[in-house]
Design brief:
- The chain is α+β, with helices and mostly antiparallel strands.
- It has three domains: 245 residues, 2-Layer Sandwich (Killer Toxin P4, Chain A), CATH 3.30.430; 85 residues, Phosphorylase Kinase, domain 1, CATH 3.30.200.20; 243 residues, Transferase(Phosphotransferase) domain 1 (Transferase(Phosphotransferase), domain 1).
- Helix content is 39%, strand content 19%.
- The protein contains 17 helices and 24 strands.
- The strands form seven sheets. The chain has a six-stranded antiparallel β-sheet with strand order 1-8-9-11-10-7, with helices on one face. Strands 2-5-6-4-3 form a five-stranded antiparallel β-sheet, covered by helices on one side.
- A hairpin with a 3-residue loop joins strand 12 and strand 13.
- Helix 11 runs antiparallel to helix 16.
Length: 667
């Protein structure tokens, strides 16, 4: 098997060659998606920014086949991205970008978020920064009509090939790779994979794995196929459709050997040549080895220097971003009616939160830290430094901050539905959260955490994940907030220690409570508690000591009565297997050993798959055994306890070995 990365310049210089082998160059397939959830008015500022965004994308598409841009300021900012397939020439890429921009304008004439995918390029824009967010849903696919003669051999060789080049593409800055492998003595398999260039390595790999798993659906037994999504694409054929690797230079021609003469002159000359060759070998090889060693040492030094500068650059960018977000105190006083009680949304750990409205109609949430809080300033600096760099649909968006007249203020986007705990634990409002919404909230939180841990520029540990720090927008989409306790890790650092234990009881991992040790698995533990709370509709603190939510969930799971944990307010209108999957994931997250807990990327895959195969969870941390777990329940609302007691036992028995849950009726 051969697999290799191809230089983009090399591809572009040979576009004419590639065109001869392209099976889809003549016909353009178009798939457009217009998100009707948010619209703009024709002639508005957003409309003008969108025109400028599309113009910029088309103009710059031919530079390298990939371009991203953001035009305007909130709330009318437009983020855009264009990417062409690698084998497209500069001119053809710009032509494709122009076609995509024209078509998306024609079909999505009032939507603030839209995307278009053709067989040669993809273009998308939105009012939120979707960069680095994976959209691996298959938009369309093609297959070669010819069948493979030996499907078992073909599938094995193809599987190994696309797996290897996917790893290469994910690790490559260009985010694409091509490869060749043998099929028969006379036929090869050629493959190419590509991701959107701004994606992190792990995100690219997850996207490509999703396309690979789709091959049996679209292209079973076929000798060629193309699968395209917004964030990645894949193609394979039994003919060459991309540029082969550059050939190695031919060996230098050797001098013709001299014929021997009767006087032996030629022989002597030949022996002298052999001796000279031996001397050259003895000298050249050690010198070459020495040069290689020196090159490696210099390369390591340059890499370390570049890495240090890159990390420093991230901090410098954060400082510049902080300066650009500074707001005046008078403007925020006007927006909140001088922080009146009528505008107060709630009380946090370090101060109050107020609703505000700017003169242009934008609604905001202003977090006002207490003046007497000595820790407040540090939390504010941390939050500004981190949140200013975070751009993800499941993370709260920081709009600005203010440090004037001893005031410490953070300004966020306003989310009308408030925090999750205000709905989930309210006996009257929890009816708003039917199971489909709860499941959507769980997935959104998981994606936000996965971005913090693995897909952002630097790894971030939240350290205070809980229901009150999950805010809900008008569509009940979750956004993680309150980064006052968060910690940022540079380079390969993935864990840390602290002497100051800060957080919320019930959500903190055992290693953090006992030793001050925190890592991404500390957030995973908090996520597990939160998942169990969302399923049960109960606070983790709503149990009488020593019983806790984790123990209650574990004992029901171990006894084959996992669904007894389910919030009785939901009745029976929910998919059993989906609920069981969430309970299973929650229990995996709250295990005693941090090493046994899954990563957030693994959790996202589990939640997004209809079939999940995972190990059975071990008993959770702080596990308490009770003969009658119901005795540990506390009544938060009238009738709540009796409703739990009347819940019917679940007849579905759970295996204590590896668990496979298959949902045969996906939504």
């Amino acid at each position: 098997m051969q697999y290799f990365a191809v230089d983009a310049v090399h591809l572009l210089l040979s576009s004419c060659f590639l065109y001869l082998f392209s099976s889809s160059a003549a016909q353009v397939y178009i798939d457009v998606n217009c998100n009707a959830a948010s619209n703009y008015t024709s002639g508005s500022v957003y409309d003008q920014n969108l025109n400028n965004t599309l113009t910029s994308l088309v103009a710059n598409s031919s530079l390298s086949g990939f371009y991203i841009t953001s035009v305007g300021q909130n709330p009318d900012v437009v983020h855009g991205l264009i990417q062409c397939i690698p084998e497209l020439s500069n001119k053809d890429c710009q032509t494709c970008a122009n076609t995509a921009a024209t078509e998306i304008r024609r079909r999505c004439f009032t939507q603030k978020e839209a995307s278009i995918l053709t067989n040669n390029c993809s273009l998308q824009y939105s009012d939120w920064s979707f960069f680095t967010t994976v959209n691996g849903a298959v938009r369309f696919s093609f297959n070669n009509p010819d069948d493979a003669a030996d499907t078992v051999l073909f599938n094995r060789q193809l599987g190994n090939l696309v797996k290897n080049i996917s790893s290469d593409a994910a690790a490559s800055p260009s985010k694409f790779a091509v490869g060749i492998t043998d099929y028969t003595d006379f036929v090869n398999i050629y493959a190419r994979v590509q991701c959107s260039r701004e994606l992190a390595e792990n995100s690219c790999l997850i996207c490509l794995q999703g396309l690979i798993s789709y091959i049996p659906t679209c292209c079973d037994k076929k000798v060629g196929g193309r699968i395209l999504s917004l964030s990645c694409n894949l193609r394979y054929e039994t003919y060459l459709f991309f540029l082969p690797p550059l050939p190695r230079p031919p060996p230098s021609p050797s001098l013709p050997e001299q014929n021997e003469t009767t006087d032996g002159t030629a022989k002597t000359s030949n022996h002298a040549g052999e001796k000279n060759s031996e001397i050259v070998v003895l000298v050249v090889i050690p010198v070459a080895i020495l040069l290689v060693v020196i090159t490696i040492i210099c390369g390591c030094f340059i890499w370390r220097s570049t890495r240090s500068k890159r990390v420093e650059g991230v901090h410098e960018d954060g400082d510049k971003r902080r300066e650009s977000l500074s707001m005046s105190l008078s403007m925020l006083r006007d927006a909140t009616r001088n922080f009146s009680e009528a505008c107060k949304l709630g009380q946090g750990g370090f101060g109050s939160v107020y609703k505000g409205k700017f003169f242009d109609g934008r609604e905001i949430a202003v977090k006002r830290l207490s003046r007497s809080s000595g820790q407040g300033l540090e939390e504010l600096k941390t939050e500004v430094g981190l949140v200013a760099k975070l751009l993800h649909r499941n993370l709260i968006r920081l709009l600005g901050f203010c440090l004037e007249d001893e005031e410490k203020l953070l300004v966020y986007e306003y989310l009308p539905n408030g925090s999750l705990d205000k709905i989930l634990f309210d006996h009257n409002r929890r009816f708003w959260l039917e199971w489909e919404r709860r499941h959507k909230i769980i997935i959104g939180i998981a994606r936000g955490l996965c971005y913090l841990h693995e897909d952002s520029q630097l790894m971030i540990i939240h350290r205070d994940l809980k229901a009150s720090n999950i805010l809900l927008d008008e569509y009940m989409n979750p956004k993680i907030s309150d980064f006052g306790l968060a910690r940022l890790f540079c380079g390969r650092q993935t864990q840390g220690n602290t002497n100051r234990i800060a957080g919320t009881q019930g959500y903190m991992a055992p290693e953090y409570v006992r030793n001050g040790h925190y890592s991404d698995k500390s957030d995973v533990y908090s996520f597990g508690v939160l998942v169990l709370e969302i399923v049960a509709g109960r606070k983790s603190s709503s149990f009488r000591n020593p019983m806790n939510l984790q123990s209650y969930a574990w004992q029901n799971w171990a006894n084959g009565k996992a669904l007894k944990l389910m919030d009785p307010i939901l009745g029976d209108q929910w998919p059993r297997n989906e609920v069981l999957k969430c309970i299973h994931i929650g229990l995996l997250c709250v295990q005693e050993s941090a090493a046994e807990r899954p990563t957030m990327s693994e959790i996202v895959v589990m939640l997004s798959s209809y079939t999940v195969t995972s190990p059975a969870p071990s008993p959770p941390a702080f596990f308490v055994t009770m003969e009658n777990p119901e005795a540990g329940l506390m009544t938060e609302n009238p009738g709540a306890s009796s409703q739990y007691a009347e819940s019917k036992p679940d007849s579905l028995q759970q295996s204590l070995n590896g668990v496979t849950i298959t949902d045969l009726d996906p939504r």
